[in-house]
UniProtKB/TrEMBL annotation:
PANTHER family: LEUCINE-RESPONSIVE REGULATORY PROTEIN, TRANSCRIPTIONAL REGULATOR AZLB. InterPro entries: AsnC-type_HTH_dom, Dimeric_a/b-barrel, Tscrpt_reg_AsnC-like, Tscrpt_reg_AsnC/Lrp_C, Tscrpt_reg_HTH_AsnC-type_CS, WH-like_DNA-bd_sf, WH_DNA-bd_sf. Transmembrane segments: none annotated. Pfam families: AsnC_trans_reg, HTH_AsnC-type. Residues 180-240 form the HTH asnC-type domain. This is Lrp/AsnC family transcriptional regulator. It comes from Streptomyces viridiviolaceus. Keywords: DNA-binding, Transcription, Transcription regulation. SUPFAM superfamilies: Dimeric alpha+beta barrel, Winged helix' DNA-binding domain.
Length: 339
């Protein structure tokens, strides 16, 4: 990393604050972080310009109950991995695309669709028929206990966290997913590339008023239809190794496992899934040595859980619609339309 790219403690604190209050005005965060609003705006512009951090609208907690989420493992010839990943990243249903360590699965995808039938059509009629695809395994998520919008960088102290207050919980009316209109979708589409677009800019883009935009966004987030997520590159998180554990646990224990799996600070995802291995959990770790350590700790704390596979990510090509380079820095977007 060049000196001009160096990440400061203020940068880390700013990102953590935005993970809790994604659309807070700079003037609200300035007293908390001890600098001016102008300084925060400049810092955020630098972080986003260098692809180190970005903020976007993503499906909220209501999505996993009323729509369909799946994790798809794809196999291909070794020489085709990069080419296939780039092609799959252009598909709007594949919201996240990760290249994994060779030796079994080659790509791990997060796929969102309106319903199981639509997801099945995507997998069997589009994905599986792509050149170079030699195998596909689809794991439907039956419960999503933790995901990326809940992950925190851990840079703020207890006083700062208390001052920010708890994040809004939302999720009062999951049926709101069924009543989205063209304006709702247009707003969400504009906020996927840049979740901090202001009310005036959103009003201009959608041909409505700032008051209407404010009211619509409040409804979308309070209902759990959408939430906002601040993501970071490994250079900022200090956690370059992503590992996804697949495990098997008695059905009676699955609902309780997430209380342990999701409380660890490295946790990015915990889901109950279909298949013989009915638990899936993703962690961001500091190095490869931490993979074994994390697995050992999980098995010690959860005797009924048996780890059946470890899928190590070597490069994230696309994360929730954002394209990343080999260093995990954001370079652009590839449209997703989960709503």
């Amino acid at each position: 990393m060049k000196d001009s790219d160096a990440v400061s403690e203020l940068d880390l604190a700013l990102v953590h604050a935005l993970q809790i209050r994604p659309r807070a005005a700079w003037s609200e965060l300035a007293p908390l972080l001890g600098v001016s609003a102008v300084t925060l705006a400049r810092r955020w512009e630098r972080l986003t310009g260098q692809g180190l951090a970005w903020l976007s609208a993503v499906p909220g907690p209501a999505f996993s109950r009323t729509r369909c989420t799946a994790f798809v493992l794809v196999s291909c010839p070794p020489a085709a991995r990069e080419r296939l990943a780039a092609r799959v990243a252009t598909l709007s249903e594949a919201v996240t695309v990760e290249l994994t360590a060779p030796g079994g699965t080659d790509l791990l995808l997060d796929v969102l669709a309106p319903d199981p039938a639509a997801l099945n059509r995507f997998v069997t009629e589009r994905l599986a028929l792509l050149p170079d695809v030699t195998g596909v395994e689809c794991l439907f998520a039956t419960s999503l206990y933790a995901e990326g919008s809940r992950w925190r960088l851990g840079s703020l102290d207890s006083a700062q966290l208390s001052a920010l207050g708890p994040p809004g919980t939302g999720d009062r009316d999951a049926d709101a997913l069924l009543t989205l209109d063209a304006l709702d979708r247009e707003l969400l589409g504009a906020l996927v590339p840049d979740g901090r677009l202001g009310l005036a800019e959103l009003a201009l883009r959608t041909g409505t008023s700032a008051a209407t935009v404010r009211r619509r966004l409040r409804r979308l987030t309070a209902s759990g239809v959408a939430t906002f997520r601040c993501d970071v590159a490994p250079a900022l998180s200090g956690l370059p190794v992503a590992v996804t554990f697949r495990g098997r646990a008695p059905v009676r224990d699955v609902n309780g496992l997430h209380r342990t799996l999701a409380t660890l600070p490295e946790c990015r995802l915990v889901a109950a899934v279909t298949g013989a291995s009915n638990v899936l959990a993703t962690y961001w770790l500091r190095d490869m040595g931490a993979v074994q350590h994390r697995e050992t700790a999980l098995c010690a704390r959860l005797p009924s859980l048996r780890i059946t596979d470890r899928v190590v990510g070597v490069r994230t090509v696309k994360r929730m619609g954002h394209l990343l380079d080999a260093d995990g820095r954001r370079t652009g977007t590839s449209a997703i339309h989960p709503w």
